[in-house]
Amino acid sequence: MNPIDTLFQTLRAAKRKAFMPFVTAGDPDLAFTRDLIPAVAESGANLIEVGFPFSDPIADGPVIQASYTRALAHQIKLADIFATLGSVKPGIPLVAMASYSLMFKRGPGAFIDAAKAAGLSGAVVPDLPVEEAEDLSKLAADRDFKLILLVTPTTSPARAAKVVKACSGFVYVVSVVGITGERAKVSAGVPELLARLRTMTDLPLCVGFGVSRPEHVRDLKEIADGVIVGSALVKKLEAAGTDRAAALAGVRQLVTELSGALA
């Protein structure tokens, strides 16, 4: 069984929810990423999303864009990311957050094979329209690799039904209209969006974009199956360029604090 399925089966049986942090591969370099992923896992994460740096991100706000820029400044390559991920054994599922452009350039089947060999269990593909997802969905299913797509507050019910049908593993539910980044509170429309999606799929529904504080996590605890935190954590990576120990400690502390809000 795919590790993502195993994770959510275990959590559902225990009536618990998943804490799912996002980190950028290669910020400030891959040696730091090799230390970062186990540290995040040990601090309370249930699944880690690993951002694959891309020069033209679609939905990422300034914090994650800056993180990608720092990583790309070192001429980071896909093969280097896969090699780094393959060298760590965090004991929890890893999921790529990767533009379809990166997958297409490598060859979707080859990308999935390399990702699986590196220990990844699935990929969030934020810029793949559901109308063009059938081939990748089949490739992923044939390899027991999860394909996760995004549903947003502006996705029509008819289109959302197509998106969740193309998904496997879990559905990435975007909580706000706009790009990633920290916000003051969780959108009031999230409960209604999740309730509508639950009539369409039995897959876990995991909420991201704008989730950055313990109170956000507590607000989502009763209605979502997982909580995704990105920008608030990636912001901590800025310090790694000058003080790696401080950056790692900051990430550990925040993961511990946010995951603790699900307890």
What does this structure look like?
- By secondary structure, this protein is α/β, with parallel strands linked by helices.
- The protein is built from twelve helices and nine strands.
- It has helices at residues 3-13, 30-42, 62-72, 78-86, 100-106, 108-117, 134-142, 157-166, 190-198, 214-221, 231-234, 244-260; strands spanning 18-24, 48-51, 94-97, 120-124, 146-148, 150-151, 171-174, 205-208, 226-229.
- The protein has a nine-stranded parallel sheet.
- Helix 8 links the parallel strand 6 and strand 7 (171-174).
- Helix 2 (30-42) crosses helix 4, helix 2 (30-42) runs parallel beside helix 12 (244-260) and helix 5 (100-106) crosses helix 6 (108-117).
- The longest helix is centred in the last third of the chain and has 17 residues, at 244-260.
- The chain is globular and about 50 Å long.
- Residues 178-184 have low confidence and may be disordered.
Any chance you could write out the topology, listing elements then pairs?
Blueprint: H1 3-13, E1 18-24, H2 30-42, E2 48-51, H3 62-72, H4 78-86, E3 94-97, H5 100-106, H6 108-117, E4 120-124, H7 134-142, E5 146-148, E6 150-151, H8 157-166, E7 171-174, H9 190-198, E8 205-208, H10 214-221, E9 226-229, H11 231-234, H12 244-260
Parallel strand pairs: 1-2, 1-9, 2-3, 3-4, 4-5, 6-7, 7-8, 8-9
